[in-house]
Design goal:
Shape: elongated
Strand order of the largest sheet: 14-15-21-18-20-19
Mean pLDDT: 80
Number of helices: 28
Number of strands: 23
Strand content: 5-15%
Radius of gyration: 44 Å
Low-confidence stretches: 153-174, 204-213, 341-346, 680-691, 800-815
Structural class: alpha+beta
Largest sheet: 6 strands, mixed, barrel
């Protein structure tokens, strides 16, 4: 009992050490669990929402649309739980200029169901539900009416489904019709699209660099009023996928098994079958057209023959009358009437009749005109027959070439821009949460070792006494082990509260400013929380056991005697006589105290360096993110304005921009939204061995004659992989676009492990895929641009547009690509350029106008900034606790020294200066070491932040180094305010009593 009471008194006496260990554990556990818990809560709530709304696991698209046969084939695939055929149509409407929207049919099989936020779901034809983004932009509300205009069929649909036969009818299919929606609409509800959780009222409205939508808005309509048997896409749910978390690898593996089955069998068979259906439908249309034409020609020929027969009868009648009159006249002149009549009839039948017919026709204008009309009608009919037959023969010959190969595209959730953006955001923040606790743990172990070693050393005589009285070494050590364990458990428990409640609540507030997450709630993870505390308990207990073992391996007699003073020795500075001789007495004492006690030096400098490094690391990430917009839109993009239009409006757009007189120089290009994919082959052709993934890109085709002008609009600098967040950047202008490959943006190449010489798979705006060679990687931080020459584009995608452009003498020799975009340099201030871009968007010929000046000023990444602020705050708290622990340990080790100084006549302020000077010097040394260490750690962390359309080029501003150093020094000065009263309370008499 006395042993226990003494242990409790010892614990009460060491309350400062207890608080230090508890606080370090609290901060470490909070960092370890907080960021993880916030991301996990977001992951889980999003997964529940996706399951509730039936977000598709797989989506199948086709360049020729999907038929009922395609849907039936997908239902038979092993592992498919449900298939939903979907119809959609792109429409335009007027809203401060022309805007586009996708009319999306609400499926009846429970897949991709919109989440109702206000109003009700549409049920009747003409009713629609819209997103909150549309409500915000348009100013409309529930009950408002809207009229839309369907856009013309897409190129691939028209290529396969709109081949007209000779009769002008559609040849593609006699039964399949493209989807058509009502055009007079009434808004009855506001919904959230499960495929895009971006918050239109939050920070995501500013991150336009990550927008992957091909239209401005999505309108959801019921099946009522929708016509057409041709489906735009098919969405699938996979058996067992709902039981897995959509963000886990197990989910991806489950879905991949089904996509592999579709790619392996169904896809190939249905592509061939669908194309054959189109060919058969085309042949049937041609056969029907031939049969109908033959019938019309036969009817026309019958009519002509009937008219000619009637004409001949009339002429024959006149001939007979004239022949009879001639015979009667001959008889009247005395000739043999019978013989004359017989001879006349014989001659008339053989020879005279035709002559008389021609004479009669020639003598009668009416008969002459009638014969000419009959001959002309027959001639025209013959020409029509020949022309129609030639046309049909041509159509038959051209049918196979006019209907291209049907392509299927099987996509999973990763192809959804909103899903991939959310996942990458959370994964990147979680990677920070996994890295920083390591530093906290190392600092906690170091500080625990320092504190517990001093605690054990102070009680060495008591330890010797207990061991001499027969107490076991384990029992004696338990006094300190239980002390450290209790401090860890209390600190860890408070850390769990902060980690599973405080930090997640803060992160989720920021996340909800970027994404809409219905049903979001905070959850506790017993396993992860317990392991988090256990990790720090093990580390701190290991340090305590080490300190106990170091002391208790001595005999009780040695322990009960005071520890022998450290043997005197010279330090290196003493050997530099010119410097040493000029240092005062107290300076020499300070130098000896700092460098002779190496364990104190290492612990203090290491602890301070670690905390400083954490602060620098956080500020480095903040500086890196803050400079992204400026570097990209002012340094890399040299143009001031990018204007994009529809292909049909490209000429009008260029005319409009040219007529305004604001452009000083420009470059016409073609811009398409596409994908860049790297398959993990491990053969070295795809970047890093085993690398895989897909990235949404902006494919920029450049005219062959203006390849050299690209360098005037975009800074072309080749980059190579670096270490610790750096990259080797080549000389500006040393990179040229040619016809041997594509230039890939660094932001995409870094995320996918692509380098110069790699082979990648590109998908253009029409969904056509091709394997391309990467000729170089260009420095790029925001967005994922892929630059390709006009000739190489034609080679990749088998385009008729520009196949012979390089060798042609003029653009008229071959059909050129439609240059639907313009990069331009403008005159005027940044504000005027921004205003001009906004005015262009109101023009009907302009689909999008982007001002680089506006993008540079408005670019923000609030999620990362919030996390960085949190990390810096926690790192500052850790620095304060570390300095407090080290300062108190330093004082407790030197109580007799301080008492001696007081006996020698030192005033309290002089004693303060004597002790604090050593701590400040050690702090300065730690800061000097921590600044470059923070840059090193910051570079390593930014390497892990592979996010879509972003590359973090590490940047640490001088001000950040100053802030980190000043903050650490300020914490050291603050600690002095707590330490000085302790120095004042030292009693020289009791402190100098012998411990014997």
């Amino acid at each position: 009992m006395a042993f226990v009471k003494d242990m409790l008194r010892m614990w009460a006496h060491s309350w400062k050490r207890f608080i230090s260990i508890a606080m370090i554990t609290l901060l470490g556990v909070a960092v370890l669990t907080g960021i993880y818990a916030g991301c996990r809560d977001a992951f889980r709530s999003t997964d529940r929402f996706f399951d509730a709304q039936g977000l598709h696991d797989v989506q199948v698209l086709s360049t020729a649309g999907l038929s009922n046969g395609d849907i039936a084939a997908l239902r038979k695939v092993n592992g498919v739980a449900k298939v939903q055929a979907e119809r959609s149509q792109e429409v335009t409407f007027d809203l401060d200029g022309r805007k586009s929207a996708t009319m999306q049919e609400i499926g009846t099989d429970g897949i991709d169901q919109p989440y109702l936020q206000d109003g009700r779901m549409p049920k009747k034809a003409g009713e629609i539900a819209v997103t909150r983004k549309f409500i915000r932009d348009s100013g409309k509300r529930i009950g408002s009416r809207l009229t839309v205009t369907p856009e013309s069929a897409s190129s691939d649909t028209s290529d396969t489904n709109d081949t007209n036969g000779a009769d002008g009818t559609n040849e593609a299919s006699g039964t399949d019709e493209a989807p058509s929606f009502p055009t007079k609409l009434t808004i009855v509800g506001v919904v959230l699209d499960p495929q895009n959780l971006s918050n239109p009222d939050g920070y995501s409205a500013m991150t336009s660099f990550r927008s992957t939508a091909t239209t401005d808005y999505t309108f959801f309509a019921p099946s009522d009023g929708v016509t057409g048997t041709l489906y735009t896409s098919a969405t699938l749910l996979v058996k067992g996928a709902a039981a897995e978390s959509t963000f886990d690898e197990s989910y991806e593996n489950t879905v991949k098994q089904v996509t592999d089955r579709i790619d392996g069998t169904v896809k190939t068979d249905r592509q061939k079958t669908r194309r054959q259906e189109l060919l058969d439908a085309g042949n049937k249309k041609i056969a029907d057209a031939r049969a109908e034409a033959d019938k019309k020609f036969a009817d026309a020929q019958s009519q002509i023959d009937a008219n000619r027969q009637q004409f001949n009868q009339q002429v024959d009648q006149i001939v007979s009358m004239q022949a009879g009159a001639a015979a009667a006249e001959a008889a009247a002149n005395g000739a043999n009437a019978g013989a004359a009549a017989g001879a006349g009839a014989s001659q008339l039948d053989e020879t005279t009749r035709e002559t008389m017919r021609e004479t009669i026709i020639a003598a009668s204008p009416e008969l002459t005109q009638a014969k000419q009309q009959l001959d002309q009608a027959q001639s025209q009919l013959n020409e029509q027959k020949a022309s129609t037959e030639h046309t049909l023969k041509t159509k038959e010959n051209e049918l196979k070439t006019s209907i291209p190969q049907v392509r299927w595209y099987v996509q999973d959730r990763q192809s959804l821009g909103g899903f991939s953006a959310l996942k990458s955001d959370l994964d990147s923040i979680q990677s920070l949460g996994n890295a920083f606790p390591i530093v906290f743990l190392l600092v906690a172990v170091m500080m625990s070792l320092t504190a517990m070693a001093r605690m054990v050393e102070e009680d060495r005589s008591l330890i010797g006494t207990y061991v001499g009285l027969g107490y076991g070494r384990l029992a004696v050590a338990s006094r300190y082990l239980l002390f450290a364990l209790l401090a860890c458990l209390i600190g860890g428990g408070l850390g769990l509260i902060a980690g599973f409640l405080g930090i997640p609540a803060f992160l989720l507030v920021v996340l909800q400013g970027m994404y809409v997450m219905p049903g979001l709630r905070l959850e506790y993870d017993w396993l992860y929380g317990s392991l988090g505390i256990a990790l720090f308990v093990v580390g701190v207990l290991a340090a305590t056991i080490y300190a106990c073992v170091q002391e208790m391996r001595q005999t009780p007699a040695a322990l009960m005697r005071p520890k022998a003073p450290r043997a005197g020795s010279r330090i290196l500075l003493e050997r530099i006589r010119p410097v040493w001789n000029r240092i005062g007495f107290l300076g020499k004492v300070t130098a000896r105290n700092i460098f002779r006690f190496k364990s104190r030096l290492i612990m203090t400098v290491g602890g301070v360096a670690g905390c400083t490094a954490l602060i620098v690391c956080g500020l480095a990430i903040n500086d890196t993110v803050a400079d992204l917009g400026i570097k990209q839109y002012r340094d890399i993009y040299q143009y001031d304005l990018m204007v994009v239009s529809d292909d049909s409006d490209a000429s009008a757009m260029r005319t409009k921009v040219a007529s305004d007189g604001r452009v000083t120089s420009s470059l016409d290009v073609r811009i398409e939204s596409g994908d860049l994919t790297v398959a993990g082959s491990g053969d070295g052709d795809s970047g890093k061995a085993g690398s895989s993934g897909s990235e949404s890109i902006q494919l920029v085709a450049v005219p062959e004659k203006h390849l050299s002008d690209l360098g005037e609009m975009v800074t072309l600098q080749p980059v190579s992989s670096g270490i610790l967040g750096t990259s080797g950047v080549g000389k500006t202008g040393s990179l040229k676009l040619d016809d041997d490959g594509v230039i890939v943006a660094q932001s995409a190449a870094s995320a996918l492990g692509v380098k110069a010489g790699s082979k990648v798979r590109l998908t253009n705006g029409d969904g056509v895929q091709a394997t391309a060679k990467v000729s170089a990687v260009n420095r790029n931080l925001i967005g994922s641009d892929v630059y390709v020459s006009e000739t190489y584009y034609a080679k990749l995608f088998d385009s008729k547009d520009a196949k012979n452009t390089k060798n042609s003498k003029s653009s008229e020799d071959s059909e050129a690509l439609t240059w639907n975009a313009m990069l331009a340099k403008l005159s005027g201030s940044d504000a005027s350029q921004t205003d001009y871009a906004e005015s262009l968007e109101e023009d009907s010929s302009v689909m999008k106008a982007v001002s680089c000046a506006h993008m540079a000023d408005s670019f923000k990444f609030d999620l990362m900034g919030a996390v960085v602020a949190l990390i810096v705050a926690l790192a500052g708290g850790l620095a304060l606790v570390v300095l407090f622990t080290l300062a108190n340990t330093n004082v407790s080790e030197r109580v007799r020294e301080m008492a001696t100084l007081k006996v020698l006549g030192f005033f309290d302020r002089e004693v303060h200066h004597y002790v604090n000077r050593e701590m400040m010097i050690l702090t300065v040394m730690g800061v000097i070491l921590g600044l470059p260490l923070g840059r090193l750690v910051g570079g390593m962390l930014t390497m892990a932040l592979n996010m879509p359309s972003l590359y973090f080029e590490v940047e640490v501003k001088p001000l950040s180094y100053v802030i980190a150093a000043v903050a650490t020094m300020a914490f050291a000065l603050l600690v002095q305010l707590f330490v000085n009263p302790v120095l004042d309370r030292i009693d020289p008499i009791s402190s100098l009593k012998s411990v014997e």
